[in-house]
What does this fold into?
Amino acid sequence: MNSPLLQLLVLAGIAVFLILRLRSVLGTRDGFEKPPVSGPEQQTRAAPRRPEFEVIEGGPDEDIVDHVPQGSDAAEALARMKAADRDFMVGDFLQGARGAYEMILMAFEKGNMESVRGFLADDVYESFDEVIREREAQGLTIEAEFVGIREVSLVDATFDTSSHLGEVTVRFVGELTSVVKDANGEIVEGSPTEVRRQKDVWTFARVMGSDDPNWQLVATGE
It folds into this structure.
């Protein structure tokens, strides 16, 4: 075999090897690919099953299934929220909700809802403020101290694919001391040394992917 032919065979072998290596790293593409779909249509097509929810590095998204059952409606809603807002993490949200609960609860106890106005939906703010005004009209004041939170658990989650509005419902069990005093400063309810348990179910909402990172309290219950 002459030298030029041998060199040609060696080069051909190297070329085949490089092609196989590129395919193993980059994968292959067959045929014409349609351009990416944007807007609500994309959300609708992606909604039934998101890879981000079902499989992440070979298993379920622990950030989701640590808080709600895998495959539940709430889990799917959280997965869609994460797809719409890549910065959203369920664990981080619950940590923020813990701080918001203490802040809002103590603002209500002390009659200063204006300090948390930006974190409340209008109707929630008005309902809290109405109770405070009734309290003041009766000459009552409250002295309260926050002790801590015993439980923060995710109850439910929903996501509107058209508006990108995400809602997360959280159950809180907090502990605080609280006394109610009349106009003369006499205690009419509670004790400054008795720790009472406060249970609440609150729903927070936010447009996922928006520039405003803050969630608002949109509903309260027990």
